[in-house]
TrEMBL record:
Domain of life according to the entry: Bacteria
Provenance organism: Couchioplanes caeruleus
Name of the molecule in the record: Polymerase nucleotidyl transferase domain-containing protein
InterPro entries linked: NT_sf
Length: 264
């Protein structure tokens, strides 16, 4: 029998609805904002179900992944006036995903994990903060495997590379006198550098809408929340002298690049 987690209002809604999580599922969990207590009044709920074999039940959509099988069936339903999206993964797909995030892959030829698709990234990010429904032991082991993997390092290097590219764009735009575009490029660099910093401090998420939450959760010394909001909202930008703001942001990004060290 698959071990189930203690019930909450969220897990009860799923478990009490027949046909959503089969009793022989290897594991199941709620991910995203609901799992972290960050949900807002209109948040949907994301449920991940891990099975020994591909899902053969009802589905009304699919997510494409670079794994075998190459799709993750999805089912959207509404419970208690809230939208729920269930994704049905296989144990084999999860195992392949961990192989793609091994330190050997990171060290060899794919340090930024470009072969990892967005749906695969989302699965691992949400596994890190999972609210268990069933299969508690499996989820614990998977969580330990995630911590031991190169996944966070992969995302960090990717974020640092994205920040560096945007910094170069911003500098080129300043030199060309295109200050409006340079402001946007600097803001892009800042967002990527913030992701690198919060990853460095233990976070996994990348969704832009929750970046403020991640900064508050990690409280990095290099980025007080007031400074973060000044930059991300452009609140500290003086339109009469945008170059000063741009260079301040780019200097901050440089400091992040020096602080965040990624090693195999």
């Amino acid at each position: 029998m698959i071990a189930r987690a203690p019930r909450s209002e969220w897990t009860t809604a799923i478990l009490d609805t027949p046909g959503l999580v089969p009793p022989d599922a290897t594991a199941s969990f709620i991910g995203g904002s609901v799992a972290r207590g960050w949900q807002h009044a209109r948040s949907d709920a994301d449920v991940y179900v891990v099975l020994s074999q591909p899902w053969t039940g009802p589905a009304n959509g699919m997510n494409t992944v670079a794994l075998s099988p190459g799709v993750v069936p999805t089912q959207i339903t509404h419970l208690d006036d809230r939208r729920w999206e269930l994704r049905y993964w296989t144990e084999g797909q999860v195992s392949q995903l961990f192989e793609k995030t091994g330190w050997d892959v990171f060290s060899a030829d794919d340090p930024t994990g470009r072969r990892i698709t967005p749906y695969e990234v989302a699965f691992l990010c949400r596994l890190a903060t999972a609210l268990p429904i069933s299969g508690v032991s499996w989820l614990h082991e998977a969580g330990q495997r995630l911590k031991a993997s190169a996944f966070r390092a992969i995302l960090t290097v990717r974020a640092l590379n994205d920040a560096d590219a945007a910094v170069e764009d911003a500098l080129g735009m300043v030199e060309s006198g295109d200050l409006g575009s340079a402001v946007l490029a600097a803001r892009t660099a800042f967002g990527a550098a913030v992701d690198a910093l919060t990853l460095h401090h233990g976070e996994y998420g990348l969704e832009a809408k929750w970046q403020d939450r991640r900064v508050r959760a990690t409280q990095p010394a290099l980025l007080p929340i007031g400074v973060y909001r000044d930059f991300i909202t452009l609140r500290s930008l003086d339109p009469r002298s945008p170059t000063d703001w741009i260079m301040s942001v780019l200097e901050w990004c440089r400091r992040v690049a020096l602080e965040v060290e990624v090693t195999a």
